[in-house]
Every structure is written in structure tokens, then in C-alpha cells.
Amino acid sequence: MRQTFLAATFFLSGAALASPPAKPHPSEPQIAAIVVAANAVDVEAGELAKAKSANPAVVSFAQQITDHTSVNQSAGALVTKLGVTPEENDSSRGLKDGGEKNLAKLKGLSGAAFDKAYVSHEVDYHVAVLGVIDTVLVPNASNAELKALIVKVRPTIAAHLEHARTLDKTLSK
Amino acid sequence: VRLTILLLVLVACARPPPRAVHRVAIRGMQFVPDQLQVVRGDRVAWTNEDLVPHTVTAADQRFDSQVITAGAGWAWTADSAEVVAYACRLHPEMRGSVTVR
After folding, report:
1. pTM for the full model?
2. How far apart are the first and last CA of chain A?
3. B39 by DSSP, 3-state: which?
4. Span A1-22, pLDDT tens digits
5. CB B57 within 8 A of CB B44
6. pLDDT given for residue B18 in this prediction
């Protein structure tokens, strides 16, 4: 779980160690790749949960992957319009690596242990993504439309986090 | 002229008052406004301004919009006086209510 958080905050930690420059400045193509990766990772985890979980509340939560699909459609349409080609970078690769490690771990679990691990990771993951949105993506998106898209997506991520937290508490009982 | 005015007044009195349409935006994962007061016969029209799909689903299942995609909308006519609680089936934290008088 922590790997994802660390990966997602790569830019921040990297920036804290390096001087100068003091702050990371991902380019527009890099921001686009981070957005796509952040959505794709959660879609994969959600697909696995829909296939493996027998808990209706967990399966219902996993249905939120339709949100990520919608967001990526909007993001895809925008980058096409802007003529931006997403460019992989340490942050987008970090998200993907963290996502793959999570999937590998989840595939080895079943039943209540799977549900708990999946939902608990979802809490951490959404906290990390909100951090990336607030500290990396929004401050560095110079294109107004790209910035507006990210700002518009934020409440969805925040709602997923609240849903995950509520579910995590019920699973802990 | 007097007859015409009298007729117009009679016609106006005979017609039921026009139904109001109340608009609710689904924006930023919230129903805006989340609480609404309407009169029986009024219509409530929800518009999804988010990028992600939502539903408008009554807590007692009396109505369900099914999935409202980004930019689309759905409307319901308030037919009886009561408080109708609703939520988004896809995002259960999103709740609202319509008080019908």
C-alpha cells in the first residue's frame, strides 16, 4: 500500500531532495500521462475486485471504475483536441508500478482478506491521487482546459475516497 | 371590450396554475440544491454537469432515472405531498430530498 503512495508522491519527494529546482514541473504531455495512468490503475484493481469479491458492498464500490473510464474518455478527447501526446515519466511509471504490485498482492488473496486489502489500498490510493492533483497537476497545468478538467475530476476522487473510507470501516468491524 | 376581459378572466381562473419546473444541477458529486421544496404537480429536472455518470434514485425505489451520462438530464413530476429522499446509486454518499407540498 505504501509503495503506491510513495510512487504517487515521487515528484514531491524528489523535489524535496534536489535543489534547485525546488519544485517539480511536469510538462503538459507528462501531466496527461499521469492522469491516464492514475485512472487506468484504479480500473484494473476494480476489474479484479468485481471478478473476485463476493461482498455486494465491495462489488458496488468497484463499479466506480465506470467513473474512471468516463474521465479517461474526457481526458483522451481533450489531449487529442490539444494535440498533446501523453509522455510517460517517473510519476506515471510510479503509479503503474504501484498498481501492478497491488494487483499481484490482491491476486494471492481471497474472501474477506481480499476485500479488506482491496478497500484499504483504495483509501491510500485515493489519498495519494488527491495529493498529486493538488500539489503537482493543478499548479503545473498551464493549459486552461487541461487544468479545468483536472479541477472537475477532483470531487469525484474525493467522493471515491469517502466511499472507500466508509466501506473500510464496515469491513473492519 | 368588457366581455372580452370577463372572458379572459374566466379562462385564466379555469386553468390550473402553470406547473413550475425546478432545476437541480448534479455538479462536483453533489445535488445542487440538495434540498428542494415544490408544489404537487411541479416538475423537477436534474442535469448532470459532471464528467462521470450518476443516477437519481428514490430511497423507496419509487423512481430511478437509470444512468444519466455526462451532460444529460432526467425529470420527474411530483405527484403526491410527501418528502422524497433520493440518492445516486453509483455514489451513495450523494443524497438529496424533495419536499412536496
Report:
1. 0.79
2. 21
3. coil
4. 444 444 444 444 333 333 344 4
5. no
6. 61
